[in-house]
Design a protein that fits this description.
This protein is mainly alpha-helical. The chain is built from 19 helices and no strands.
Length: 401
Amino acid sequence: MRTSPGYASLFRTPEFTPLFLCSAAQTAAQTLGGLALGTLVFRATESPLLAAVSMFGPSLAQVVGATFLLSGSDRLPPRATLTGVALAFAAGTAVLALPGLPVAAVFAVVLVQGLVASLGGGVRWGLLTEILSKERYLLGRSLFNMMSGLAQIGGYAAGGVLVAVLTPRAALLLAAVLYAGAALGLRLGLTDRPPRATGRPSVRATRRANALLWSSRPRRRLFLALWVPNGLIVGCESLYVSYAPGAAGTLFACAALGMFAGDVTVGRLVPPGRRARLGVPLLLVLAGPYLLFFLRPPVPLAAVLVLVASAGFGASLVQQERLVALTPTELSGHALGLHSAGMLTAQGVSAALAGAVAQLTSPAVAMTAMAVASTAVTGMLARGLRAADARGDRQVENSVS
């Protein structure tokens, strides 16, 4: 029986390594900077809502980018675009570190960063389908997700130490340096590829492609599954700082470790013929442990619950693999950008909603409420997803045979 290529084969593919390493640097910068900024805002305002929005606020701007900018995902040169996005984040993060910056100015910078990020996601993942091909996309995306988990563990651990030993502003400056290093690596490590699609980016082209992608019921169902259930759980994560101010880094690190375990399992250990069946069960695993936060578990037990729940993020790999298979090549970057923008928008809205509920009740009650909502959405989508998964299983089995 022939075995499929492993992760090591990806690093023998030209351009994969620089894209991977620079993405790791950006993820570490994002986690380090997010924790520092959330801590800074919480200390200044003592507001769970503002702390949550400061960490996940860039996600709220993703819906604007998905509406007006996303056609650039396939119509702009990847190297120049990704380099520009990293430089924009370096500059914005450095501005956030300025002493005495008003809270209103903080949120203005955060929203601009989110607008820029909405374009970067589509360009990055569309480029990955070119570098690896659609057939190897899931393996590559699995490795990227694993890297993201490890970078988040390191970023949150380092952020917790830097915030405690130095200051949140020092952590923000380090994040800006990481973004600048990623920009340099992308500029030197990637070749100057042409855009995947012809024509100039425009609002009309973005809306036309969005309408085409959304017109397919299977794709529409996948988009909703990728956006809403996990977005609601990120609302739970946005309350770690207010739930356990002295141990938020620990909870974030456990969440990243759980996501890493789920991605390894789905991306490498589960056979392709069985992988699609895990989509709905993993979404239920993602929400289930947070239902127990109503009991206000102590930090050690909360960390275990977060670790178990975060393995459920592996569901997104199953859904992304199906989405790539259902999307024409010339729209691959746009579709993956729409997935990323919609997911991050849902995360930002959920963070704001969770923060508002926590403001009126408590972080523990708000986390439980978000978990209930995530479970309910998964239940509504489950029947259609399982039918699509069964068809996907038959297709995989036929291609293997």
